[in-house]
Amino acid sequence: MVSSALAILFLDLFAFYATFPNQVKKLMIPSMILVFIYLFGVFFSKINIGPDSEIIFESFVDIVMLITVLPLFLIPIITLVYYSYTMKSRSPPHARRSAWLAIAIFLVILSYIPEILGPAALINYLRGFYTMAVIIFYFCFTRFIDIRWVQKIHHLYICIADKGTCLYDHPFIEEEVMECSLVTGFIAGISSLIQEITRTQKRLKIIDMEDIKIVLEQSNKNIFGILMTEEDHKILRIKLRRLLEVFETEFESELIDFSGRIDAFKRTKKIVDRIFVYKEVF
């Protein structure tokens, strides 16, 4: 019973650490209280041995297990589902991984409950869910590499595609960088040159170096979004396209009557913070 209680407690700890790592100590308090009540009820109950050498507890132990074990099982699933829902718009990779982790824990619980509450005849049939859960756990921690997208970004540039004029740039990490107009002018020039060489209207999407990728997205209104990043994650392209859409809507009049002044684009930072900055739930 002690091993069972610790196993359930570990599931709660795992869920909290995967979602709210900075709040683990506070969130674990209710779970630890429930485990204490569970163990207290088991240790201070009368134990009988059945005809098949099965351990039989007093009836009130079943009640204690119902009001403690069930919430302990539900806590990690509810935590992961809540986190997945909350992060759906903030960071889809985190939301998807959390949802799959909830499914994996549900499978673990589904195969584990009969061992505690019975009937024992189902145990052998439900243990196969353990294998499915392990496979899901494996993919969650080896395939969802894009959840680290926020640590991969170095610099963002927005410029006029055909001229290379930099309208706004935003550093995500502290590093020495070149004049933004030189960077955007050079990249815009490369993009145009490649189109001429290949004689195609298709746009350059990425410049891939050994440790840095230059991700490019061009809008229909001749605006370039340039992202210096360590990985070309799908989530980064989605956010870059979204940024260009909001940027063009926000500065529609300034882009139509653009005179070379870029002061009007300084408030782009608020848009970048809203779209690119990853924030924990709490």
Explained architecture:
The protein has 282 residues and is an alpha+beta fold. The protein folds into two domains: 2-141, no CATH class; 149-275, Beta-Lactamase. It has eleven helices and seven strands. It has a five-stranded antiparallel beta sheet, with helices on both faces. A hairpin with a 4-residue loop joins strand 6 (213-218) and strand 7. The longest helix has 28 residues, at 59-86. The protein starts with a helix and ends in a 7-residue tail after the last helix. 29% of the residues are buried.
SSE string, helix = H, strand = E?
HHEEHHHHHEEHEEEHHH
Low-confidence runs of at least 5 consecutive residues: none
What structural category characterises the helix and strand content?
Answer: alpha+beta
Counted by DSSP, the helix tally is: 11
Q: Portion of residues in helices?
A: 55-70%
